[in-house]
């Protein structure tokens, strides 16, 4: 919904929500609540486009042309990066991923460079724009709009050169760390891969993703897919809980845009305490299980 909120920042614009997925009726009311003036239901001879990335990109590119859209906004998650790049290639449009902010009247976009060390403001001189927003960077706001349904039938023969046969869940067992609204991460102080289970237990209660510092990954405690930082993933959750993480510049570059940062560390001199919103000076092996118990099903009413 952050993309809809970002699109509504243009006071002169009309916001279209493009739905290539089948059976998307459940989304209609939510899209109206968050600012869709038109909801375009895309219908093709292929009942389900989800296994065909090239087909999804083709129909969305066709919709951009059909409705003369000035910009297409999506999330720069793992799937979004792939899809937006394909669309930009098809129509020869400028592509900017991992956007932090968009200013439609001035035609500029802000994005981070060099692992967050600098922020660049880019001016786009041609349209349509294809823009990927960093997940969770825009706080969604309710702004009810009519959300009129428009059915767009496109007789497109979908390319099946590339077919997604199966999507396997990552080892964390939770949401993708780059798109999660809550992330709980562990550092070298977690001590072992086995000990990461206390973070996973807490994550399951919070509906969070589990992340890790580079030190924890290098030590073999977690997979590289969970690594957050300069050489890992960049995240912008509503809440980031750093457990046993010292707070190096490299790690901070990957999570500094989190809305709220909570640090749990038993070292009062850890740099993370100078960068967090809330700090808990204590043993993560006591604090994290206590948090899990407090928020779990058996908590006191």
Describe this structure in words.
The protein is an alpha/beta fold and 301 residues long. It folds into 2 domains: 2-153, HUPs (Rossmann fold, 3-Layer(aba) Sandwich); 182-295, Rossmann fold (3-Layer(aba) Sandwich), CATH 3.40.50. Helix content is 25%, strand content 24%. It is built from 8 helices and 13 strands. The strands form 3 sheets. It has a 5-stranded mixed sheet. Helix 3 packs across helix 4 (78-91) and helix 5 (197-206) packs parallel to helix 8. The longest helix is centred in the first third of the chain and has 14 residues, at 53-66. The mean pLDDT is 90.
Outline: elongated
What kind of sheet is the major sheet?
5 strands, mixed
Summed up, the domain count is 2
Uncertain spans, ≥5 residues at pLDDT below 50? none
User: At the fourth CATH level, what is the homologous superfamily of the largest domain?
Assistant: HUPs
- Look up the CATH topology of the largest domain: Rossmann fold
Strand line-up of the largest beta sheet? 3-7-4-5-6
Mean pLDDT: 90
Number of strands: 13
Alpha-beta classification: alpha/beta
- The H-and-E topology, N to C, reads as HEHEHEHEEEEEEHEHEHEEH
């Amino acid at each position: 919904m952050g993309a809809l909120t970002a699109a509504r920042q243009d006071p002169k614009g009309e916001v279209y929500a493009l739905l290539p997925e089948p059976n998307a009726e459940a989304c209609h009311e939510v899209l109206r609540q968050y600012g869709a003036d038109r909801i375009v239901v895309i219908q093709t001879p292929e009942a389900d486009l989800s296994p065909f990335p090239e087909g999804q990109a083709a129909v969305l590119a066709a919709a951009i042309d059909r409705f003369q859209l000035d910009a297409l906004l999506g999330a720069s998650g793992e799937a979004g990066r792939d899809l937006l790049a394909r669309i930009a290639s098809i129509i020869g449009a400028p592509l900017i991923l991992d956007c932090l902010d968009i200013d439609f009247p001035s035609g500029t976009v802000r994005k981070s460079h060099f692992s967050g060390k600098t922020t660049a403001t880019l001016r786009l001189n041609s349209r349509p724009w294809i823009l990927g927003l960093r997940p969770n960077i825009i706080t969604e706001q309710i702004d009810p709009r009519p959300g009129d349904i428009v059915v767009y039938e496109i007789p497109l023969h979908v390319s099946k050169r590339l077919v997604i046969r199966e999507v396997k869940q990552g080892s964390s067992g939770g949401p993708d760390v780059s798109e999660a609204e809550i992330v709980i991460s562990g550092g070298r102080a977690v001590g072992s891969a086995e000990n990461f289970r206390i973070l996973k237990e807490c994550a399951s209660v919070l509906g969070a993703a589990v992340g890790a510092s580079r030190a924890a990954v290098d030590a073999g405690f977690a997979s590289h897919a969970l690594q957050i930082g300069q050489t890992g993933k960049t995240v912008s959750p509503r809440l980031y809980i750093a457990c046993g993480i010292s707070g190096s510049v490299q790690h901070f570059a990957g999570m500094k845009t989190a809305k709220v940062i909570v640090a749990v560390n038993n070292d009062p001199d850890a740099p993370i305490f100078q960068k967090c919103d809330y700090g808990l000076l204590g043993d993560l092996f006591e604090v994290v299980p206590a948090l899990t118990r407090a928020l779990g099903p058996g908590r006191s009413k």
